[in-house]
Amino acid sequence: MVRQTVAMNVTETPMTFPSAQDAASSLDLSKHKPAAGTSLETTRSVARRLGCSVRTVQRWVKSGILPVPLRVNKRSFFPAHVMPRPDLPETA
């Protein structure tokens, strides 16, 4: 077995990272915070109430039929009584 070495020309480009203040200011957290006193539901309870599976609720969020849930400790919470948008066509 013959071993060959290959020389590669690699140019180094400095990596730049945004400051923490720039990153924090670019996030709009106001749309993710529910109003004070708003009760929240888990994905499972929304699925039960709508008569579908948890996976269907997740698909509806991804396609925009349901709003993006609030994430707390890797769990999803929806405002209570969230319903699919009526202006979208039915999905099969």
| Unreliable residue runs | 26-30
In total, how many beta strands? 3
How many whole angstroms does the radius of gyration measure? 23 Å
Structural class: alpha+beta
Proportion in β-strands:
5-15%
Instruction: Quickly count the helices.
Output: 3
Oligomerization: single chain
Q: How would you sum up this structure, described in words?
A:
There is one protein chain. The protein has 92 residues and is of the alpha+beta class. It has a domain at 36-83. Helices cover 27% and strands 12% of the residues. It is built from 3 helices and 3 strands; from the N terminus they run H-E-H-H-E-E. It has helices at residues 20-26, 43-50, 54-63; strands spanning 40-42, 70-72, 75-79. The chain has a 3-stranded antiparallel β-sheet with strand order 1-3-2. A hairpin with a 2-residue loop joins strand 2 and strand 3 (75-79). Helix 2 (43-50) crosses helix 3 (54-63). The chain is elongated, with a radius of gyration of 23 Å. The protein starts with 19 loop residues before the first helix and ends in a 13-residue tail after the last strand. 7% of the residues are buried. The model is unreliable at 26-30 (pLDDT under 50).
Outline the secondary-structure elements:
Elements: H1 20-26, E1 40-42, H2 43-50, H3 54-63, E2 70-72, E3 75-79
Antiparallel strand pairs: 1-3, 2-3
In summary, what is this structure?
The chain is of the alpha+beta class and 92 residues long.
